[in-house]
Design brief:
single chain, 329 residues, alpha+beta, Peroxisomal Thiolase, Chain A, domain 1, 2 domains, four-stranded mixed β-sheet, 7 helices, 25% strand, multifunctional enzyme
Length: 329
């Protein structure tokens, strides 16, 4: 039994904000971002993405739900349990939340592969959803123009096959950089109830509090340029592949500048490489599956035997794998 991606769908909130700063638009490539409604949660969006996927799939066949989010509905219970009920899935279905950001989709595929190929599940519904906009101070223009909200649904299924559908997984973690992308207050370390609100204005006049999202963009950029190229090379080496053996490269869609920099340093300039953040911005764990859907609209799945995925960001974390999309409908 081998795990394969069979379907991917995504949902974008109705509200759209336009980036009006021309300098940032040119550098980041981000012109628009979708923003969740005031009462719209990550589970609301995940359910809508899943409903699109399940319109063509029997609910009774789903035997596990994986939900990736850093903006869950509650501290507890598990949001995946709530989603199981809202979708009307079997009560014999497993349900698990995991907290991950820009590498979250890679981890989800790895978990789904493990569940399927160890015989614990046959049809895994992998959901990602983020509402980072709720963490961002509207006067913090260091991060406001970058992040968009979204949700995705991926059906990973078991197939009788001698070839691999998901393979070449490579993970990495450097927790020493955790504070370079963080919401400092709100968890058990610094609870809302006992932590004083601190207002911060940086040298560029961006305003935030310690309850808002903070990102050291320069540190994240340096981190990505340092860890992605060697990880890519390790995946190539472990699987006896060369750069030209990959049919398409789909990295975490952070922004145009970072993607172009990675394309250059990874020596992928003349190879099929997805870079399209114009309509979405950085949607965190959603960015890779959204990119896959859009990329497959322009490329026939039967020509996508080897697609290299690479995520990197909050944690600090990075990870990559190769997927065979020839079975994706």
């Amino acid at each position: 039994m081998k795990a394969y991606i069979e379907r991917i769908t995504y949902y974008l909130p109705e509200k759209v904000e336009e980036n009006l700063n021309e300098r940032l638009r040119v550098k980041t490539g981000i012109e628009y971002r979708h923003v969740a409604g005031g009462n719209e949660t990550s589970s609301d969006m995940a359910v809508k993405a899943a409903e699109k996927l399940l319109a063509d799939v029997s609910k009774e066949n789903i035997d596990y739900v994986l939900f990736c989010s850093q903006s869950p509905d509650y501290y507890l219970p598990t949001t995946a349990c709530i989603i199981q009920d809202r979708l009307g899935l079997s009560k014999n279905c497993g349900a698990l939340d995991y907290n991950h950001g820009c590498t979250g989709y890679i981890y989800g595929l790895g978990l789904a592969k493990g569940l399927i190929e160890s015989g614990q599940a046959r049809n895994v519904l992998l959901l990602t959803a983020e509402t980072y906009s709720k963490y961002i101070n509207p006067e913090d223009h260091a991060v406001l123009p970058l992040f968009g909200d979204a949700a995705t649904a991926t059906l990973v299924v078991g197939k009788e096959s001698d070839s691999e559908g998901l393979y070449g997984f490579k993970y990495g973690t450097d927790g020493s950089g955790y504070n370079n992308l963080i919401v400092p207050v709100g968890g058990a370390r610094h609870p809302y109830q006992t932590t004083e609100i601190k207002n911060v204005t940086d040298r560029y006049d961006n305003k935030r509090t310690n309850r808002n999202l903070f990102m050291d963009g320069g540190a994240i950029m340096d981190f990505a340029l340092e860890v992605v190229p060697p990880s890519l090379n390790e995946i190539f080496s472990a699987n006896n592949l060369d750069r030209t053996d990959i049919d398409y490269y789909v990295f975490h869609q952070a922004n145009n500048f970072m993607l172009k920099s990675l394309q250059k340093i990874c020596k992928l300039k003349k190879l099929p490489y997805w870079n399209d953040v114009q309509e979405y911005g950085n949607t965190v764990s959603n960015s890779i599956p959204i990119a896959l859907v859009d990329m497959m609209k322009e490329n026939e799945p039967e020509n996508l035997h080897r697609v290299m995925l690479m995520g990197f960001g909050v944690g600090l974390s990075w990870g990559g794998c190769i997927v065979d999309l020839t079975e994706c409908l």
